[in-house]
Design a protein that fits this description.
Helix content is 36%, strand content 21%. It is an alpha+beta fold.
Length: 461
């Protein structure tokens, strides 16, 4: 057997490191509630062995008992490894938080990190939340409040993904199979937010004119269940970002490419509901600024890990709402727990986009920075084959004059602006604006979606 330190295994060369061993026990208990400690093995796995007597065993047991609060009762015994005497300490406990010598610690990888007072407080709240999870509590809804079409679609998608082995039958049987009805026949809160017809959860969305939260161009509030809101959030992003066109597809058709990866944005939206705190009286938010997109959810990132731990290491997932997370996993919306941040980060790296994960005072934020319009315009200045056509014939090279560039910048800030308003802003005639907009349409850079009165502009290149 190869011995290697981990989140639940600690190695000490001898009982001369007994105090450090006690700290490691507390650190592991506060993270995983059980673990193992060896004395007589170096941290690199080399078996050293040590003298082990009855007095040694009593001393280890007494030191652990006297210096850990709340008290634990570990199993301490002699073990022979490679013909050398060692000590094995097996321990477990659920009365989190535990303290060693009056201080609390948390295991991160193979390290023991001391917790601040704030972290201890959050750990206590997390334990209370875990022991009394909102998602597991009975709701006040009945089967008639469950949206059967959403439930049927969920089962269908789950079967297509190979994650659900059964056919749809009826509301009660499916909810029972999913663990969404308790032993008393009550429908759990998790079912309410996942499949309810009118759950009181919201997604607030907004578009701001600049990089600051000062002037907004649009502000809305969507209501629905989690699956509804993920769809609405994705649609809102798709409608209000810039798109470029790839003509090198091997055919006369054009491939529209979003400035930010839509699949990654959907995954962020998904995780914002899976990891939010339902005990907080706040809503999930989606904000589009001129330079970035922010998605935030009530509740903070786990205190004993950072987003970088999930990006750079194989970190076990600890969703705040495991029941909700399991249902969303079965639907195929997420691949597996604990990969969301890494997937988003990787996708943004591939697209040369900057992404940040920030735990702020009020919520956890994911921020993706948008490509500048000038860069998008520069990317469109490429040679086209003479036989390629998009709408009407375009020039050999797609270029913009100053007025066209200004129009795109204005539309980028407000996709619902009128031609008259653009003319007023640029202090030119409406005829000039119409002429330049027609040129942008001919170049495949701009289209109009919907009617003149209620429609909007879409930058497609």
């Amino acid at each position: 057997m190869i011995y290697q330190e981990s989140e639940i295994l600690e190695l000490k060369k001898s009982t001369s490191e007994l105090k450090e061993g006690v700290i490691s026990i507390v650190s592991i208990l506060n993270k995983h509630k059980k673990g193992t400690l060896y004395f007589g093995i170096k941290d690199n796995g080399e078996i050293l062995g040590q003298e082990v007597t009855n007095q040694t065993i009593r001393n280890v047991t007494k030191t652990i008992s006297e210096n850990i609060e709340p008290k634990i009762y570990p199993s301490v015994s002699k073990i022979i490894i490679e013909n050398k005497d060692c000590i094995i300490v097996e321990f477990e406990g659920t009365d989190i938080p535990y303290f060693a010598y009056g201080r609390a610690y948390m295991r991160v990888g193979d390290e023991d990190r001391q917790l601040s007072q704030k972290a201890i407080k959050n750990l206590i709240l997390k334990v209370e939340e875990h022991n009394n999870r909102w998602e597991e509590k009975p709701s006040d809804i009945t089967l008639k409040d469950i949206d059967e079409e959403i439930l049927k679609t969920f089962v269908k998608k789950g079967k297509e993904k190979g994650r659900i082995p059964y056919e749809y039958t009826n509301k009660k049987e499916i909810l029972t199979r999913l663990g969404l009805i308790d032993k008393y026949g009550n429908i759990k809160n998790a079912a309410y937010v996942l499949f309810g017809k009118n759950p009181k959860i919201k997604l607030r969305v907004a578009i701001f004119a600049t990089e600051e939260k000062t002037t907004f161009l649009d502000m809305q509030e969507f209501s629905g269940n989690i699956f509804n809101l993920i769809d609405k959030g994705e649609q809102y992003i798709s409608k209000n970002i810039r798109w470029s066109a790839n003509f090198n597809t091997g055919s006369f058709s054009r491939e529209d490419i979003p400035e930010v990866p839509i699949r990654a944005m959907r995954e962020i939206l998904c995780n914002s509901f899976l990891h939010r705190s339902w005990n907080e009286p706040y809503d999930n938010d989606l904000a589009i600024y001129s330079d970035r997109i922010e998605i935030c959810n009530p509740g903070h990132f786990t205190e004993d890990a950072t987003p970088e731990d999930y990006i750079n290491k194989i970190e076990p997932s600890r969703p705040r709402n495991p029941l909700i997370a399991e249902i969303v996993f079965l639907s195929g919306e997420i691949e597996k727990w604990g990969t969301g941040i890494k997937n988003v980060y990787k996708k943004c790296q591939e697209e040369n986009l900057k992404v940040k994960f920030e735990d702020r005072k009020t919520a956890f934020f994911v921020v993706i920075y948008r490509k500048k319009l000038e860069n998008l315009v520069e990317n469109t200045e490429k040679k086209l084959n003479k036989n390629d056509t998009v709408n009407d014939t375009v020039n050999d090279t797609v270029k913009l004059n100053k007025t066209e560039t200004k129009i795109l910048n204005i539309i980028n800030r407000n996709s619902q602006i009128t031609q008259q308003e653009i003319a007023n802003e640029l202090n030119v005639s409406v005829l000039t604006i119409k002429r330049n907009i027609n040129k942008l349409k001919e170049k495949g850079l701009l289209i109009r979606i919907g009617a003149d009165k209620n429609g909007y502009w879409k930058i497609i290149k």
